[in-house]
Automatic annotation (TrEMBL):
<dbReference type="GO" id="GO:0003700">
    <property type="term" value="F:DNA-binding transcription factor activity"/>
</dbReference>
<dbReference type="InterPro" id="IPR001845">
    <property type="entry name" value="HTH_ArsR_DNA-bd_dom"/>
</dbReference>
<dbReference type="GO" id="GO:0032791">
    <property type="term" value="F:lead ion binding"/>
</dbReference>
<dbReference type="GO" id="GO:0010288">
    <property type="term" value="P:response to lead ion"/>
</dbReference>
<dbReference type="InterPro" id="IPR052543">
    <property type="entry name" value="HTH_Metal-responsive_Reg"/>
</dbReference>
<dbReference type="GO" id="GO:0003677">
    <property type="term" value="F:DNA binding"/>
</dbReference>
<keyword id="KW-0104">Cadmium</keyword>
<dbReference type="GO" id="GO:0097063">
    <property type="term" value="F:cadmium ion sensor activity"/>
</dbReference>
<comment type="subunit">
    <text>Homodimer.</text>
</comment>
<dbReference type="InterPro" id="IPR036388">
    <property type="entry name" value="WH-like_DNA-bd_sf"/>
</dbReference>
<comment type="function">
    <text>Metal-responsive transcriptional repressor for the cmt operon. Binding of cadmium or lead causes the repressor to dissociate from the DNA.</text>
</comment>
<feature type="domain" description="HTH arsR-type">
    <location>
        <begin position="3"/>
        <end position="100"/>
    </location>
</feature>
<dbReference type="GO" id="GO:0046686">
    <property type="term" value="P:response to cadmium ion"/>
</dbReference>
<dbReference type="InterPro" id="IPR036390">
    <property type="entry name" value="WH_DNA-bd_sf"/>
</dbReference>
<keyword id="KW-0804">Transcription</keyword>
<dbReference type="Pfam" id="PF01022">
    <property type="entry name" value="HTH_5"/>
</dbReference>
<dbReference type="InterPro" id="IPR011991">
    <property type="entry name" value="ArsR-like_HTH"/>
</dbReference>
Length: 111
């Protein structure tokens, strides 16, 4: 039986999280600043229920954390280095090719 290194599992989890356009938009938004779910839903133009499901996925993947703020909960990236990684990935992908699409893009699930 082949064992997978923890680093590979983490990268695969990150990849699955990025496989959904809404989750990508959430991460890119949180890269700019921490946000409350209602504000994120409005900014991204998605329902609060749908956003909540994606935030739960990202939280379960370990990519975002919740920060209690009085009676509200704020979301932010789990580590500032994720913002840098997102910037690096975004610019690298754009530099390679922008006119391509992934044939499996519609089948990607949550982490």
């Amino acid at each position: 039986m082949l064992t997978v290194a923890p680093e590979i599992e983490v990268l695969a989890r990150f990849g699955r999280a990025l496989a959904d356009p809404i989750r990508c938009r959430i991460l890119l938004s949180l890269r700019e600043a921490a946000a409350y779910p209602a504000d994120l839903a409005d900014a991204l133009g998605v329902s609060r229920t749908r956003l909540s499901n994606h935030l739960a996925c990202l939280r379960d993947c370990g990519l975002v954390i919740t920060v209690p703020d009085g009676r509200r909960t704020r979301y932010e990236l789990a580590d500032a280095r994720l913002g840098h990684a997102l910037d690096d990935l975004r610019t690298a992908v754009v530099a390679v090719e922008t006119d391509r699409s992934c044939p499996d893009a519609d089948t990607a699930g949550c982490c």
